[in-house]
Amino acid sequence: MQLENYPEKSEQAQTKDSIGEYKTFRLPKHRELLGDLERMATKHPILVLSEFDVTEARDLLQKHKVTTGETISFTAWIIRCISEAVSEDKMVQAYRKGKQLVVFEDVDVAFMMDKASQFGELVAGSIVRKANEKSVRQIHEEIRAAQAEKTIQGTLVGEGEDARLAGLFQSLPSAIRRLFGRWYSGNPKLRKKTQGTVGITSVGNILGTQTGAWGCPIVTGMYPLMFGISGISRKPGISEEKIEPREFLSMSVMLDHDAVDGAEAARFLRRLGELFTQAYGLEGDILLGSRLG
Question: What is the mean pLDDT of the chain?
Fold first, then answer.
């Protein structure tokens, strides 16, 4: 967001002194909210930088576009693969409550997107409920509907009317906000209802698609399982014992070490890699038009 679009600017007259010229701006409310949410971040994370071969999936989605003229959301397919891997090992999305772990059956995936506002582009979020029971197409349609809505149901971060409750929360004294944060972080049912069980954020293609380019955000957050999606790099890979150009998705993964150990995290990531590499869900779901559930 450009500086000239920041809301609620304070005095902007340029000031000159021994340190040079500068301007002062008021921190936007959605940035204050992000700061409060970060205080609820997982205390003992397992952080993994990874990349997955998504060549087959990209080829199938491209063939579908050429054949039908329809562009299926790549993010929808990522959510489908993640929700399937989580459904096979739900402990990775467990919320801690004191000395207990609360494990939900539903895989509710929250994703971030840019939304236009009077202040420019702001980050907002929506949740795909029971993503483990939905097809890629169903998830795709939910994402497109959320992007088109003027008022987002289940907004996590935003500005204006979409975040009036967040604005009310931010108007409270900081001590009260911290008390609420501690209560909220210890309430798994409320957290699932308001934020889901898995978080996904994307920064796009950081370094472009040049051969060998690689870049990945390191994510932290208030979810027991969170993904930071970067771009796709094209470089040599091995397929059927042959070296050929392949496309790799860069991704960081954060798991809660209170819920899973390193070995279980490795098994989860290995399974997720298999789903990505096999283009899970696309053949029947997209190309043949079948549905799940």
Answer: 78
- Position 219: which residue type? V
CATH number at residue 52: 3.30.559.10
Q: Report pLDDT for 42.
A: 72
Answer yes or no: are the C-beta atoms of 252 and 228 closer than 8 Å: yes
pLDDT band at 231 (very low <50, low <70, confident <90, very high): confident
Inside any domain, residue 31: no
Higher pLDDT, 20 or 142: 142
The structural domain count of the chain equals: 1
Cα end-to-end span (Å), the chain: 41
Question: Given a cut of 90, is residue 267 above it in pLDDT?
Answer: yes
The range of the structural domain enclosing residue 125 comes to 44-155+188-287
pTM, two decimal places: 0.78
CA 29/CA 245 separation, integer angstroms:
45
Per-residue confidence (pLDDT) for residue 85, from 0 to 100: 97
Q: Does residue 172 form part of some domain?
A: no
* The pLDDT of residue 136: 94
3-state secondary structure string across the chain? CCHHHCCCCCCCCCECCCCCCECCCCCCHHHHHHHHHHCCCCCCEEEEEEEEECHHHHHHHHHHHHHHCCCCCHHHHHHHHHHHHHHHCHHHHCEEECCEEECCCCCCEEEEEEEEECCEEEEEEEEECCHHHCCHHHHHHHHHHHHHCCCCCCCCCCCHHHHHHHHHHHHCCHHHHHHHHHHHHCCHHHHHHHHCCEEEEECCCCCCCCCCCCCCCCCCCCCCEEEEEEEEEEEEEEECCEEEEEEEEEEEEEEECCCCCHHHHHHHHHHHHHHHHCCCCHHHHHHCCCCCC
